[in-house]
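Good morning C.,

I know you're traveling, so I'll keep this short. The sequence:
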Amino acid sequence: MKEVLWKAADKLRGSVDAGQYRDFVLGLVFLKYVSDSSGGGAFQVPDGARWEDLTAAPGSLGERIDSAMDAVMRANPPLDGALPKIFSGVDQRRLGELVQLIGQVRFGGKAARDVLGEVYEYFLEKFARAEGKRGGEFYTPPSVVRLLVEILEPYKGRVYDPCCGSGGMFVQAEKFVLSHRGRLGDIAVHGQEANERTWRLAKMNLAVHEIAGDLRCSDTFHADAHPGLRADYVLANPPFNMSDWYRDPGDPRWRYGVPPAGNANFAWIQHILSKLGPDGRAGVVMANGSMSSRLSGEGGIRAALVEAGLVSCMVALPDRLFRSTPIPACLWFLDRAPRDRVLFVDARSMGTMIDRTERVLTEDDIARIAGAYRSRRGSGHADVPGFCRSAGLDEIRSHDHVLTPGRYVGAARTSPDGEPMADRVERLTKELFAHFEESARLDRVVRDELGRLDG
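The tokens, ready to paste straight into the viewer:
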């Protein structure tokens, strides 16, 4: 279904403004879903706004769709302002063909919500790839989001994202809760997004997954939309190295130092810290420069964060995870419970290339990194040369509070012949099991021959 819908939607690409194409397609698919599921789903669809009504009445098809979108939003307050009303000005012939094709898809039955959720996630990924750098404004690669969620384990509580894009962090957090036998209401979602079109996309995405969320549209630095919030978890992928941002040097959020005007990295980190409750934890995607930069006071801010015990883990990511930017990325994990050690994880050699330009973290990669973090929070942590190491404050001070994992984890242990120890263990294990299998085969052959001799 996903591929069929995408090919159908692609018919309209040339006749719709590129900036509106994403909203256009997802809006139509959403309208079809609520029409099919009305009466048994979470949304009310007034008479005259159902899918079958779109082609039944005379006049402009685009105007009828705009009216239907308006009616659905009025009937469902959580959708207020989320649905696009941009259909009257496009090529009506092509629009009619697309409506006819989408009309052949049925979103009925108990699995309708899950099917629509898959379609939305598939479409968002397709749009992000098609838009390249601009796609990074609303989309974080799924494997990176899964890694953040698996490490933070947001079972229950308030989840916040100050630059929520299309809401992917919230959707993955909900999936985590449900996969661990939780319920939809176990997490409360709060988010903010400065781009109005992207904010509408997030509202629609949450509605698709039936997640009740408080999403606001405004600039996080200029107008904090959740001033009293104390979150249990923060998941965020802020714009890297943002130079054009609203900066008030007297802002009370800058407890650990005033961020430089030319780079908002440490403004995002300090804003996120200001949102964490007493036991709150955060996972933040950042440009690699945030781990080592000393420009314009950034080194001092980083040192203050470490000395306050707020940095719990740093993860260096492999390259080419993000199609939208060539800038290398890392993960910061922050914890309101003070810590005198930082876990460093060097994951730069991980991931699998899915084509010539894009890498993804595999489930095994995610499990290994998350496992290192969890064992460090418990009592079973063991350093692994070349991969992870827990370092104390004195050692971090000796490195001038530079947090690049490669400085701390060292080189992977190698065998006398130069083969990395991890690779050697994996190879020998495979060889051992191969010998076991061959031994079992020979045992069967001998028994068969002895059986024939006895006969």
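Safe travels,
E.
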